[in-house]
Amino acid sequence: MNFSEIQHNIQNDLTNLRLQIEGDILTDSASLLIYSTDASTYRELPLAVALPKSNNDIQALIHFANLHKLTLIPRGAGTSLAGQVVGKGIVVDISRYMNRILEVNTEDRWVRVQPGVVLDELNITLKIYGLFFAPETSTSNRCMIGGMLGNN
């Protein structure tokens, strides 16, 4: 079965998934084209793009992917240079909704964030506490914590 046949057969199930999650499921041509690339030279059209709003959405996506034997491709800003965030599965973009700083513990010097928090934005918040989250990277004004941890 080729990619087009898989995509056609799964559209009904993706419609049902849309009803199960708070976030968005994108399958339109423009969105798929946008998410087929990152900062690398690689290009691969995904089956769909998910924009989860919660941990429950992530769990529903994992269940859906397991059920359908699909890959999930976590994505933040897409600043990777080796094509890590492109593929034929479901791209899971955490940048749209999962981008909050949840807790700063100055006493123990730690922070709890969602994976879509941009590094520079985190460090602006931490600066008033005399804290800094490393590493210093050239893409710090757009790279996200989830992507940094996933790639490194």
Report on this model:
The protein is of the alpha/beta class. Helix content is 36%, strand content 16%. The longest helix has 18 residues. The chain is globular. The termini are far apart. The model has no long low-confidence stretch (mean pLDDT 90).
Could you provide a short overview of the structure?
With 152 residues, this protein is of the alpha/beta class. Helix content is 36%, strand content 16%.
Main attributes of the structure:
152 residues; alpha/beta; two-stranded antiparallel ribbon; 5 helices; 36% helix; globular
- Cα distance spanning the termini: 35 Å
Order of helices and strands: HEHEHEEEEHH
Please count the helical segments. Answer: 5
Mean of residue pLDDT values: 90
Structural class: alpha/beta
Residue share in β-strands = 15-25%
Low-confidence segments: none
Q: Give the biggest beta sheet.
A: 4 strands, mixed
- Report strand order across the widest sheet: 1-2-4-3
What's the shape?
A: globular
**Helix-residue proportion:** 25-40%
